[in-house]
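Exercise: predict the fold of this chain.
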Amino acid sequence: MDLFLLQAIAKELEPLLAGHRLGKIVQLNTTDLALDFRLRDGRWLVISTDPARLALYLTSRQPKQLSDEPRTDTGFVALAKKYLGSARLLAMETLGYDRVVNFDFEAEDDDNQIKRRKLVVLLTGRTANVVLTEGNQILARLREGEESSTEFSEPLPPADKLDPFQCSAAQLYDLIAESDGNIATAAQKHFIGFSPAYARELAYRAQFSEPELALQNLLADLFEANPVPAIYSAPAIEALKQEIGRDEFSLTLSPIELRHLFALEQSSFASINEAADIYFTLLENRRRFQAGKQKLVSQLGAKLKKQRTLLANLERELAGFASGEKHQRWGELLLANLHQAIKTDAGFAVTDFYDEAQATITIPSADKPTAQDAAEHYFKLARKAKNGQAAISARLPEVKKEVVSLETKLAQVSEVTRAEDLKPLLEASGPASPTPAKPKTQPGKKTKEEKISGVRRYRSTDGYEILVGRTDRDNDNLTLRVAKSYDLWFHAADYPGSHVVLRNPQRREVSPRAITEAAELAAKFSSARNNAKVAVNYCEKKFVTKPKGFAPGQVRLASFKTVMVEPKEAVERLL
C-alpha cells in the first residue's frame, strides 16, 4: 500500500469512523487485525501489517471469512480491550510524509478518568506494526520484535526525499537530468510518496505537457480533486474472480485516474474503500489459491518421489535376483557330484552334466566346508530369488501405475486456475505424511509426574504447570536443563530472585491470565516481594542463554517482554 492510496483511504474513513465507539477486536493472525466500530452497515476495519500485503480498509466480510482461526484471546487483544474497551474515536490523522495513521481515542481508565490514547498503524514495510500508546508510552505492540523501547516516537521525515509540492521547476529539471532524462526514475527516487505507479503516471503525463505542469496536475488530482477510485486489471475483474489462479494477473488500485494504464481494464467504484475491499479480497483469494496449489504440488511431489524411489529399488532388487537360475544349477551340480567333487582353493571342482562335453567347472564354495553344505546354500539363494522375483513382479505394475497416476495429477494441478477445481483435489490428496494423534492432556500437565529437585511446583488457573527455582544452582538447572525452548521463562526485572518456568508442551498460545500468574510468582520469590508492583521480564526459554563466565543463576536475554504485577502466590501449590 503506497502513501497516496493510504492517505486517500484514511481521508474517506475519518468521517465514517469518527465518533464511533470501538467494539470487538479480533486478531486474524500474527500480523492482521479486524476492528468493529459498530457501523450500521456492519463493516469491519481490516489492518494488515504483513510487509507482503500491507492494508487498511473497510470490508463487509466477517472475521471468520477473513481468517481460518480468528482469535480474541491474544496478548495484544487483551491489552487493547483493557485500554480501549468501548473507547470513542475522536479523529484519524495521517502522518503526511510516511505510511502512518493515528487513531486518536478517548477512553476511561479503571478510576473512570478520561484518558487520551492512540492506536498507531505503521504500514512502513518490514517495520510495519500496530502500536497502542498513551502519551509517548507504549502500552502494547501487535508485532513483538527486537525493539524493546517503551517510548514511542513517530518516524522522521525521509532526509533523502523532497516534498513534491515544494519542488520548483528548476529543481525538477535538475533531478531529471541527474536521472539521465528519466522522469519516472527521478520522481520515484527523490519525491515523497511516489511509488512506481505514480512515477510512471508522471512520466506519461509529461509526454503531453511540460514536466512541472504534469507534476502540478498529478498532485492536484491526488489532493485537490474528488477521488476517482478505480481498479486497473488484466484481464477484467470478473474473469479474475472466476480464474483466480491464471498466469495473466495484473491488478492496480488507485484513488485517481492512471492514464498510463489505458491498455488495462478499468473498473470504477463509488468509494475508495469499496474498491479496496474488492482489490484486497482478490489478492487474498489469489494468495490462498497459490498457497493451496503449492501445498498440493508439494504433497504430490513428495508422494511421486517416494514412489519413484520405490520403483528404482524394486527394479534393482529384481535385477539382483536374476542369478537365481544359476544358483539352482550350481546346487544341482554339487549334489550330482557329491562324492566326486574336489575341494580346491577356488571352490568345488565338479562335472557339468548340463554341458554335452561334460567339462569340469569350479563352483565357489561360499565358505562352506562340504559340497552338501554349499549345495544347500545355493538352493536357499535360488528359492529366495524365485520368491523375490514373484513378489516384485506382482508389485511392480501397481507401483508403475501409481507413478503414472501421480505424474498425471501433477500435470492436471499445473493447469488448474479455478478455486472450485482446486478444492476437491486438495480434499482428495489428504495430508502428505499423516502423524498419529497425540493424546489430549491439560496444558502444561504431564501424563507421568516428573521428579525435579530444587523447585517449587504450581498449577495455574488454566492448568499450566509452573516451576519456581529455589537457589541459584537450582535456577541454572531449571532454566538450562529442565525448561524446553517453547516454555515461558520469567524473572523479576532488576532484582535478584527465582527463575520461573511456565511449561508449555503443547506449544499453545499461553493465556494472559497464566502469564500474569507466573509473573506474580516471579515477583513473590524475588527481593522485590514487598513492593506494591514489580516489573517482571518474560520470554520463551530459547531466548535465554548463559555465556561462559556468568555466575550461577545469571543469564542473558536476547529478547523479552515486561509485565507489571503484584507479588503473590495465588495459584495451586503442588506437592
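Check your answer against the key: Residues 154 and 323 are 80 Å apart (CA to CA).
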